[in-house]
Specification:
Layout: E1 2-9, E2 12-19, E3 29-35, H1 45-55, E4 59-63, H2 81-96, E5 101-111, H3 114-124, E6 128-134, H4 139-145, H5 153-171, E7 178-180, H6 194-203, E8 216-218, H7 222-225, E9 242-247, H8 253-262, E10 267-272, H9 279-282, H10 284-301
Parallel strand pairs: 3-4, 3-5, 5-6, 6-9, 9-10
Antiparallel strand pairs: 1-2, 2-4, 7-8
Helix pairs in contact: 2-3
Length: about 300
Amino acid sequence: MKANVTFPSAGLSLAGLLFTPDSHTGTPLPAVVVSHPGGGVKEQTASLYAERLAREGFAALVFDAAYQGGSEGTPRGLENPFQRAEDVRAAVTYLTTRDDIDPVRIGALGICASGGYVPFAAQTDHRIRAVAAVSAVDVSSLLVDGLGRTQGPEVLQALLEQAGAARTAEAKGEKPAVLNWAPESPEGLEEAPTLYREAQDYYRTPRGGHCNSTNEWPLRSIDHIAQFDPYARIELIAPRPLLMIVGSEADTAYFSREAVEKANEPKELFVVDGGTHVSLYDRDEHVTPAVAKLTDFFGQHLAG
């Protein structure tokens, strides 16, 4: 079953979907907050995972981040990691108010950029009893330093200059300058990192594209993103468990490996053989083992 819901986050109303098992008997359910990738919306891979988890007996809440999708906030598309983490906490708060949810059995799952936002939120929100990520990235490192850390500090300084100019232009009523999350066309991507070629194929085609996923983010987001370090205090999650899932062929897997290395026990890195960053979004042969692992993980750690 799927229901439209709304809940507040820092004064903004967020649009969500709550998935629940078809066979729900009325006993309060364990629940998982599922947070979408950067540039994504709730109807894409987040809902795929939520629906699968609901089949396994969990309530699963997906939502559009503030400024994005069907949620409130301007400028549209703003990517503020600190607000994104607050959205996760707000989703947990919303679940604790529902009679059909067990407030002491709530976990969270972050996909892609939310694989940084969810662990960051969980570091200080002890209501999140189990923490998981699929194809996690550190959005600051990805957008500021470049995939594989190929960009120098001068790139960040240039972006920050542009962010300041964009704020001034916005205050004068001008349309915010935007950048794309995913390339619009596959042309010229032959030598690009796999992530960008995959993102184009997922977000810019009928495979995963959605009308609410514009794939644009205001350039001034960078002055929020630059200061964000999702895994700096990841040890604070312990003694609650951490699970990070990656594809064996994902060029972003190093983010999860380094995060797990920094974390304290209990922690686990689970590798899906043959998987890439984006294949874990929707390819059944890779989503199925990921969901099976998540089912075991949340089943064990959110048990009644």
